[in-house]
Here is the input.
Amino acid sequence: MIPRTLFDSDLEGFRDSVRKFLEKEAVPFHAQWEKDGQVDRDLWRKGGEMGFLCATAPEQYGGLGCDFRYSAVVMEEISRSGCSGIGWPLHSDIVMPYILNWGNEEQKQHYIPKLISGEMVGAIAMTEPGTGSDLQNVKTTAIKNGDHYVLNGSKTFITNGQHADLVIVVAKTNPKEAAKGISLFLVDANSEGFEKGTNLDKVGMKAQDTSELFFNDVKVPAENMLGADGMGFVALMQELPQERLLVGLTAVAACEAALEWTKTYVKDRKAFGKPIANFQNTRFKMAEMYAEVTAMRVFTDKCLELHLEKKLDIPTAAMLKQLTTDLQCKVMDECVQLHGGYGYMWEYPIARGWADSRVQKIYAGTNEIMKEIVARAIL
Ligand SMILES: Cc1cc2nc3c(=O)[nH]c(=O)nc-3n(C[C@H](O)[C@H](O)[C@H](O)COP(=O)(O)OP(=O)(O)OC[C@H]3O[C@@H](n4cnc5c(N)ncnc54)[C@H](O)[C@@H]3O)c2cc1C
Here is the structure.
């Protein structure tokens, strides 16, 4: 319908290679990975070899030095494929940029090449059992003791938690302070006192190793602080627009995939002697969803364009995250309905898409928090 203008032939070629890779290396195995609760670790190495991890990492650290459109292509194709267990977007476009934007030269040289190759898997641990939205209130502490910090606390719902070799941990270096007491640490998963807990049993995203993490007197070398002491909250606020754009891009790609699956299904399925695509309700529902997804695609691409120009502000990214994920959940639900009972069967991609979509309104800041951000900006 409305052609996308941000993606030239080079990017479409890149998209084609990501799509083919996923069709060969992920789609046939994903059902088993859902049973295993995690994707095969080797997929990370294979993705690294293809240049699909950390596409925006600069050449000096072994990256391709691409712009964010290449990342967008990777995350859109993962979303379209329904392989929701693959935690590359968080690794490539959340964890790596923290190191690139806030790390010192030594940290960049040590970690970024390993994230690009897939030798290391990255995670970021903000949420705790007692606090998610209220990030300023985290209870994990990192107390200075000579040449190291002593880390204590627990985190939950951490994406890539089982595979992670490197975790960016949000902790209080000054527990008496709120936002100003927060710092970030690069914590190696094999540190003594660092335990990976349960791989959580979720409603959807079943091949994603979302986990609990525990820190019991973990000695973190002082040089592993990421950014300056007390600057953790500022870093989080600055990095969150990209995370919310990422969620928006995956949400719209998932909507487009759901519409394609449903289009095929309603033309094929018959009731009362005719394809269900012939019923006015089906036609109107499909037309309404196409209109809404088309409008959302245009808005999302505009936000992507603003981000490429470094102009995507916090409230606009919040609007995008809220609108796209609300629409994703609505589209998935309507599409399940048009599939009838088959839409509720796990073997059908629309059933998985429906289950996978729900969390998009919850993580990366809940949609209620997104509305708070927007309201604060306009009122
Ligand atoms: C699959 C999955 C993956 C995740 N991955 C990660 C990860 O990699 N790293 C990480 O750190 N976290 C991760 N999270 C955690 C996620 O970011 C949090 O669940 C989310 O921020 C909400 O926090 P909470 O669960 O503590 O809910 P709460 O903060 O307790 O919120 C509960 C309800 O209260 C509402 N609420 C809270 N405060 C307000 C307010 N001020 N105004 C209005 N309503 C409010 C919320 O909107 C929500 O509806 C993940 C979660 C899931 C489910």
In short: The radius of gyration is 21 Å. The chain has a mean pLDDT of 98. Residues 90, 124-127, 132-133, 157-159, 202, 205, 210, 359, 362-363, 366, 368-369, 372 surround flavin-adenine dinucleotide (CB under 6 Å). The longest strand covers residues 148-158.
